[in-house]
Amino acid sequence: MNKRRIHLKLSIHKKLTNPLKIIVISDLHLGYAIQKRELICWINKINNEQPDLVLIVGDIIDTNVIPLRYFELEKYLKKIKSRLGIYSCLGNHEYLSGVTDSIDFIKSAGINLLRDSSVLIDTGVYIVGRDDRTNGLRKPLSELIKDLDTSKPIIVLDHQPYHLEESELNQVDVQFSGHTHQGQVWPISLIANSIFEKSHGYLKKGNTHIYVSSGIGIWGGRFRIGTNSEYVVVDLFQD
Asked: Which of 30, 74, 160, 190 is the 20 to 30 Å CA partner of 151?
């Protein structure tokens, strides 16, 4: 129940008109277990930060959209305040929940879904959202980047943190991922560490900053052992 506030100061070489304050969350797993009361607490934490931008890195939904619709959670998600909007990519649980229904819910909540697509926001920063790797036909990152002006800052949202070298090779400045929950329960954390190059925390590869979140929510049993739920506050600036 105690969310850890992670504060990152990230500097990039590319021109940034103004510094950005970004809130990054992942793995909400809203559903039968995590409902309105807890969601409202999260939204209050986000809004208290007065962010320029909010990024959600997949797994908004747990296993089914039915409880989200029943409890009208979309109207609470609409209360998130962000000057430049809210953007999300898909996670594996959006597929588990029925990808069509999941997409409909995310859009109804006022969240801009990026599914193998990108957007250039007002500050001249690209946000690229990858489809989840559950979809074996998702586009490679190189194809999503090829038509972008790589002299501008690029932020990538990719739910599952596999093949982190792809972002470095494609001149990505920042990548945010989630999915792992840092194992959620020790000693499963050790297994997560063995599967992923980075199962939780910060990593820099070349000029690319990477952060893998342990998630603001949880999956399955409502407990963690040896790990923390978190939200990430990022100050992005030009060095």
From this structure: 160
Closest CA to 87 of 63, 122, 62: 122
CB-based contact 129:118 (threshold 8 Å)? yes
Q: What integer is the mean pLDDT of 160-182?
A: 97
Determine contact, residues 179/161, Cβ cutoff 8 Å. Answer: yes
DSSP label at residue 138: P
Angle, CA of 140, 161 and 111, to the nearest 5°: 80
Q: Is the pTM of this model over 0.85?
A: yes
To which H or E segment does residue 23 belong?
strand 20-25
**All residues at 6 or more sequence positions from 151 whose CB lies less than 8 Å from its CB, including other chains:** 14, 15
Question: What is the rounded CA–CA span in Å between residue 143 and residue 134?
Answer: 18
Whole-Å CA distances, 47 to 53, 56, 67 = 11, 14, 24
Average pLDDT of span 113-131: 96
Report pLDDT for 2.
83
Is residue 221 predicted with pLDDT exceeding 80?
Answer: no
Strands 4-12 and 208-212: unpaired
